[in-house]
Recover the amino acids of this structure.
């Protein structure tokens, strides 16, 4: 039954082929059809959730021989963490298609690209060897290139090229690491086998482990992104269409952190122990830097983009601390950030569709014309800040708590990130929604309609659900986190 | 050194592809100048000639199974895995290109078949070149092949750029031939042999340390002559002008055939003759590879003409292929895979170019493909496939070839080379994505139009694109073939 994992890659590709086959003159069909089609992978998630024990560590589902002469196989595997991220991906794809405006909803290229993106991101989460991981990691650039390039904003060419070149620059390090691992694998076993089991059995010296850790981690950190490798993110977010932003913040940033958790730390633990302080330092710097820069932004989307840098800094802090609690917190924060920032970008998209501007100073007093919208925005902001009872609190609390024994000063500084988050989110809320409704254009804005509510409400429910019942998420990641933690713990000898 | 079966002497099967090609060309010439015949007859002659050439290559496989690696005509012609691989590759290049070349010759003012005749002649020359064991034989093959290419480049007589391309190609090509033959003479002076195997035996006999300097210089000069044909820097200066000036319908053929055969000859020379001189020429080749990759990437990034861009991208790709060939036997096998994948993508790109740009035109500004996606989705999608294949994105054969090549280089501990090649991949993404952006994304009022695409061209392009994707998804078979090519040297 778990072999259904294949379909998370194949279904979106088939779906997008299906969309491309519908004749262009039936433009009104594209949106309903793609909503229906993207329900299928989500339904599959639900089906597996009900019928299956998914709280596993990484299990290999199937392998195909790719280059037999080199002994390289392509492997698909599955774990609880993968399942959560895939469900998040499938949900966000459905919701972002629900939330698209008329312009994008009538373009089959747009909807098809989103589904291709969904397939390749799922591929990254299911990859059971370094080659398939790399293939899907790079393949997701193609749909993203067209999504940002064709449907992006005014400065899209610059942002798209920057995004692609940054990612490709990172991925050559991953490719170099993959090749190096293959050669090491050849030296110890006689084949270039790159599946996770074989890599775990490679005997490597501590220097090799450090080099490999740096190669992989650098590549993944560009995708996270960690300060100072983050500069592509604000440009990409501002220029990407709303659905692209939702997926970029919601799942694409998770790909980097996932890679570090799946590859860098378990296989190259010695390297991790060597550089964990450096990563923690940069993460904390990113938390504070992202938050401070977010405060002074005049564009709402850019503000949320910088807040993403701050939030992903928390994730990286939790990972780099290497404690059980902080690792768990990091994974939960990954999910949380996907939900919260996805919702925020969606809300900003709704506003942009109505008003065609994202400048904070153009708004004011929107609470009066759009009360429901204001309420939802405030709720999401609270989740993003980390108000107890909502999801953001759980992750950040676990991360700060867990990383305190490792990095006392750094995690104390990081705690200020939460305060800064309250400043930039609430101040932005105040400027947009409170005050006088003095602009006529703002006065006539209509509140959210039922279609838009359907798109955003599931995310709100999830925010509340994870906030009050985090052990549900935790139960899925326990096995994954234990393996990572054991790898670190057996080497460092530090007991919790 | 591996044993070669005794020279068997006179055997027509081993040169049958060359003979078939020459005969076809002569019959076609005869029909063209004497009997007033219609297009149909010439078409039938040409295509039956191409098909029987490929049949002859199969005959050679039979001979190979019977005799193994063997030499013929008193050590002039060699039958080994490299020559078979080269024959198949050249046969495929001819097969894939004969259609665009046929169409373009009907656009000439006189509507003659001289382009076809020149193509068949040059193919026969290059067939001979990959078969030759003797350095003089190699030179003859190279010249027969190249002279026809010089003429092809200048076939559009009314176009000044085409004339310039032809003259430039001819002058610099002759210079390269001079350098090559001078190198041969230097090698002959010290060992009195011309066979590549005898040369290796001679080197093994005197010992690599006591090989005279003049001989080493001779070997370098021979390689310079060949590196010229693959447009590796710093011998690349002809390539952009020739690519740009030559009629677009011919460039795919001209570029691919010269590269394919020169690379196979270089690979064989490296494996046969240089095995006994380890590390002697490493720094020379390292310099050539690094220069090719850097110069190619840099100049490709600033081109406004698509054909020039492809020329410089070819310089980069040559650097990649060469790096594998000169680093060892497994690298050579990876390079053979790379060569095959690259040739397929190159032909595909130029078939598309010849459709959009017109078969006989020279300049092809990058803005001329603006809005291709609006006018013809098929061409736009396949164009993206080939470009992404050249860039080396996963799911295309370009990624597999880069991956196995770099893996082998890393296993040879050539870390500097691997880092430079990886960095050039990033630059590659910049200049390969630029045309894709213009063709598919950039908004335009006047999308490219006025081109007709025939059913046969649909078939040709889609089969090339399918091969690009297929060898990216299921590369095992082609990798096994490329390992078979080098197996007897392992």
């Amino acid at each position: 039954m778990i072999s259904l994992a294949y379909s998370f890659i194949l279904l979106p590709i088939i779906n997008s082929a299906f969309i491309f086959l519908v004749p262009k003159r039936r433009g009104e069909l594209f949106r309903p059809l793609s909503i229906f089609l993207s329900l299928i992978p989500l339904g599959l998630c639900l089906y597996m959730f009900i019928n299956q024990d998914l709280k596993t560590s990484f299990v290999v589902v199937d392998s195909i021989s790719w280059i037999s002469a080199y002994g390289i196989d392509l492997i698909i595997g599955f774990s609880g963490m993968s399942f959560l991220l895939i469900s998040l991906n499938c949900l966000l794809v459905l919701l972002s298609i629900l939330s698209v405006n008329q312009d994008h909803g009538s373009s089959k290229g747009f909807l098809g690209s989103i589904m291709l993106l969904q397939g390749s991101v799922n591929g990254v989460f299911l990859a059971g060897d370094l080659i398939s991981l790399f293939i899907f990691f790079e393949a997701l650039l193609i749909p993203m290139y067209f999504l940002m390039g064709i449907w992006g904003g005014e400065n899209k060419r610059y942002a798209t090229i920057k995004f692609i070149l940054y990612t490709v620059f990172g991925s050559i390090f991953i490719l170099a690491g993959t090749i190096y691992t293959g050669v090491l694998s050849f030296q110890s076993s006689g084949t270039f086998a790159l599946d996770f089991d074989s890599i775990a059995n490679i005997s490597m010296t501590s220097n090799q482990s450090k080099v490999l850790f740096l190669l992989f981690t650098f590549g993944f950190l560009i995708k996270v992104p960690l300060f100072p490798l983050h500069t592509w993110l604000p440009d990409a977010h501002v220029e990407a269409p709303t659905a692209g932003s939702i997926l970029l913040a919601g799942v694409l940033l998770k790909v980097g952190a996932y890679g570090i958790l799946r590859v860098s730390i378990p296989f190259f633990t010695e390297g991790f122990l060597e550089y964990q302080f450096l990563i923690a330092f940069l993460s904390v710097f990113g938390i504070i830097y992202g938050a401070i820069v977010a405060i002074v932004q005049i564009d709402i989307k850019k503000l949320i983009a910088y807040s993403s840098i701050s939030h992903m800094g928390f994730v990286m802090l939790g990972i780099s601390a290497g404690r059980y609690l902080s690792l768990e917190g990091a994974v939960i924060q990954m999910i949380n950030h996907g939900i919260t920032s996805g919702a925020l970008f969606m809300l900003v998209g709704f506003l942009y569709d109505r008003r065609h501007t994202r400048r904070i100073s153009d708004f004011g007093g929107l609470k009066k014309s759009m009360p429901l919208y204001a309420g939802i925005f405030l709720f999401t902001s609270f989740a993003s800040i980390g108000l107890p009872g909502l999801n953001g609190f759980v992750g950040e609390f676990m991360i700060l708590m867990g990383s305190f024994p490792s990095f006392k000063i750094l995690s104390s500084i990081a705690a200020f990130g939460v305060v800064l988050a309250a400043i930039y989110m609430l101040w932005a809320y105040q400027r947009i929604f409170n005050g006088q409704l003095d602009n006529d254009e703002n006065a006539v804005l209509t509140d959210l309609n039922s279609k838009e509510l359907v798109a955003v409400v599931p995310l709100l429910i999830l925010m509340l659900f994870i906030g009050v019942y985090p052990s549900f998420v935790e139960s899925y990641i326990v096995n994954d986190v234990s393996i990572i933690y054991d790898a670190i713990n057996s080497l460092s000898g530090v007991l919790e | 050194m591996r044993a070669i079966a005794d020279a068997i002497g006179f055997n027509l099967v081993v040169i049958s592809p060359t003979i078939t090609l020459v005969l076809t060309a002569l019959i076609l010439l005869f029909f063209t100048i004497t009997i007033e015949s219609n297009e149909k007859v010439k078409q039938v002659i040409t295509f039956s000639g191409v098909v029987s050439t490929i049949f002859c290559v199969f005959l050679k496989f039979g001979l190979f199974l019977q005799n193994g690696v063997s030499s013929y005509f008193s050590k002039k012609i060699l039958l080994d895995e490299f020559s078979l691989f080269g024959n198949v590759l050249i046969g495929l290049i001819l097969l894939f290109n004969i259609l665009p070349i046929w169409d373009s010759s009907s656009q000439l003012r006189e509507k003659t078949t001289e382009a076809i005749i020149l193509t068949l002649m040059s193919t026969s020359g290059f067939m001979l070149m990959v078969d030759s064991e003797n350095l003089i034989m190699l030179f003859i093959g190279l010249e027969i092949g190249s002279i026809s290419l010089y003429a092809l480049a200048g076939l559009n007589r009314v176009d000044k750029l085409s004339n310039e391309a032809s003259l430039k190609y001819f002058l610099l090509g002759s210079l390269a031939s001079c350098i090559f033959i001078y190198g041969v003479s230097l090698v002959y002076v010290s060992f009195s042999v011309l066979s590549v195997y005898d040369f290796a035996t001679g080197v093994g006999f005197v010992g690599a340390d006591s090989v005279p300097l003049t001989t080493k210089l001779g070997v370098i000069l021979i390689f310079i002559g060949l590196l010229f044909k693959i447009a590796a820097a710093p011998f690349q200066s002809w390539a952009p002008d020739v690519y740009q000036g030559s009629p677009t319908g011919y460039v795919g053929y001209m570029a691919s055939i010269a590269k394919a055969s020169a690379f196979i000859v270089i690979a064989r020379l490296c494996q046969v003759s240089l095995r006994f001189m380890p590390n002697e020429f490493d720094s020379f080749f390292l310099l050539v590879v690094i220069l090719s990759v850097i110069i190619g990437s840099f100049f490709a990034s600033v081109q406004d003409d698509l054909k020039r861009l492809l020329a410089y991208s070819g310089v980069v790709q040559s650097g990649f292929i060469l790096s594998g060939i000169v680093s060892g036997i497994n690298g050579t096998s990876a390079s053979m895979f790379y060569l095959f994948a690259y040739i397929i993508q190159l032909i595909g790109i130029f078939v598309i170019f010849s459709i959009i740009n017109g078969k006989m035109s020279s300049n092809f500004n990058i803005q001329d493909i603006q809005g291709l996606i609006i006018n013809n989705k098929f061409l736009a999608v396949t164009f993206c496939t080939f470009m992404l294949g050249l860039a080396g994105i996963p799911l295309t054969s370009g990624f597999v070839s880069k991956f196995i090549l770099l893996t082998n280089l890393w296993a040879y501990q050539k870390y500097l080379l691997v880092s430079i090649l990886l960095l050039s991949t990033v630059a590659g993404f910049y200049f390969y994505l630029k045309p894709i952006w213009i063709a598919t994304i950039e908004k335009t009022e006047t999308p490219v139009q006025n081109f007709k695409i025939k059913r046969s061209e649909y078939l040709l392009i889609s089969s090339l694109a399918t091969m690009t994707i297929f060898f990216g998804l299921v590369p095992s078979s082609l990798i096994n073939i490329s390992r078979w090519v080098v197996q007897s040297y392992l």
